[in-house]
Amino acid sequence: MKSSSADNRSNMQLTTHLLFRLLPMQIILAMIGSINSIISGLFATNYVGTDAMAAVGVYNPINMLVYAISTMLVGGAVILCGMYMGRNEPEKVQNVFTLGNVLAIGTALVFAVLFVVMSTGNMTGFLTDDPAIRPYFDRYLLGQAIGLAPLLLGNQFAAFLSLENKAGRTMLASVVYIIVNVILNFVFVAYLHMESFGLALASAIGLWVYLLIQAVCFMSPASELKIISRGLSFGETGQIIKIGIPGAASYGYQTLRGFIVNKLLLIYVGAAGLSAFTSSDNLLRIAWALPGGMLAASRMVMSISIGEEDRQTLADVMRVMFRRFLPLMSAVSALIIISGNFLAKLYYQDTTDPVYMMTVWGFRILPLCMPLSIICMHFTVYAQSSGKQVLVHLLSILDGVVCVAGFTALLIPRMGMNSVYVANVLNGVVTTIVIVAYSIIRIRRIPKTMDELMVIPEEFGVTENERMDLSVKKIEDVENVSVSVKEFCDSRGIDPRSSYLASLFLEEMAGNVVDHGFTKDKKNHSIDIRVVHKNDDLILRIKDDCVPFDPAVKRELRDPSDPAKNIGIRMIYKLAEHIEYQNMLGLNVLTVRLTRSGQ
């Protein structure tokens, strides 16, 4: 029996709902890393001067390097945990969670020592030899060292809180961080005149507050993710790095790109050009949080889908990207372009100063690359999660350094400042062409379906004949569950006993979710049921977006007036080879495995 188009649409709706439910928090998480530069930039231009803003620009490539390491650790740990969650291996999840945090702390300490030595030991000349900019940069680098530990560890906590469906804690931490950062900037920069050191110190203290608010969650006995104090295995360090490197490579390449572009701007345009580019780029990081959040939400769902070998959901994530994320980002980009003059005035009040118009053109041109970047980012993280290393590194090096730096070098002698902005747009065009070309080369024809565009291997997951998907949105749909499951089992030659148990169990579970889960609030809910027959195993999976509830509780409930109530659930728990319940990303997921079903 093949899954119907209606059930595929239902799975698509469930995936869309999940991604958009995760999206707001992921946008905020993506924005946290940018808040430092945005606030620092505003206070630098308004209270210190253009040279201080240029110092922030000099630091940006270093910030990219720090984020490259952080992305490697967070991406590797989250993807690995998602896979283990999909495979129902909770002990490995705990070990990877702890290991990721330990690696983050160690990395932060190394960078902090390096920053202190460089800033106090007169060792930053290779980054900038401008006598006006360098003193500001040295003090800014020293202040940044104080905030490295909470930044890297906070990124880890934020990602895992989302996996544990406690993103609200990160929301609170983020709001407090922004408030503390702004207040301390007024105190340190506007009142105490601590200049660039005050800019960095305000952000560092804010990040420590941000981290502590998140850490409380993991200290609670109710937390499913805990830092283990004994038995920590470092054996998966290599796996975390291996999985995380492709995603981090993009930031690594951007670090190199930043050094090249900064040097080209200083040679051909001067400090005003670097200040203008830094201003427009920093403020646009608020908008970049939108595709960053989209990517983070998609990455979590993709990693779990790969762990479950859920081909349909994996492709649906990309469909949501094209149909929902892309139009949304296009609308935001258009709004930014229209507001170019207003945004530039936030940094530079004198409209006759050349740096003002340079900044305006940044807001008019740079947003054009954002929709295209969503495509590149999603295919990069998909390739990262699925082991397509050639595509990962190809996109990372093109997007990270070759296209932007190359086009800038070619165009800047003739176009001047605008060459940097145009180069970013051309970069998005090239990477999109490469994605399509990669698919054509691999499948040897023009892709006609999402599976073909993604080059999902034929052996991934199960065929349509080996699975059946059902969706339940109302009580009337429950009546069809038992019949449909039995028909599928019979068509696969599954023994009558297993067929009867599976159909009875899934009907009872669906009925319980509708009766108790759908009525907890006024939201629209759905149940996704999948039955898989592969290698003599009958696998039942039921997924819903209702309040967290472990169905194992149901097997203990008996009604004296109706002894047969919940009998299907009780029998399955007695006879199943393996049963695992998890609440992942706010979804209840129950997986049941019956062995030797066809014998």
What does this structure look like?
Strand 2 (527-534) and strand 3 form a beta hairpin. The protein has 19 helices and 5 strands. The protein has 2 domains: 5-450, no CATH class; 466-594, 2-Layer Sandwich (Heat Shock Protein 90). It has helices at 5-48, 50-86, 90-120, 134-146, 148-163, 167-191, 195-219, 237-268, 271-308, 311-338, 340-345, 354-365, 370-386, 389-415, 418-443, 450-454, 475-491, 496-517, 567-575, and strands spanning 467-472, 527-534, 537-544, 578-584, 587-594. A 5-stranded antiparallel β-sheet has the order 1-2-3-5-4, sandwiched between helices. The protein has 599 residues and is α+β, with helices and mostly antiparallel strands. The longest helix is centred in the N-terminal third of the chain and has 44 residues, at 5-48.
Shape: elongated
Which percent bin holds the helix content? over 70%
Radius of gyration: 26 Å
The tally of domains stands at 2
Largest sheet: 5 strands, antiparallel
Distance between the termini: 20 Å
SSE succession: HHHHHHHHHHHHHHHHEHHEEHEE
Strand content: 5-15%
Q: Number of helical segments?
A: 19
- Mean pLDDT over the residues: 82
- Class inferred from helices and paired strands: alpha+beta
Strand order of the largest sheet: 1-2-3-5-4
Give the uncertain stretches in residue-range form.
555-560
Query: What is the number of E strands?
Result: 5
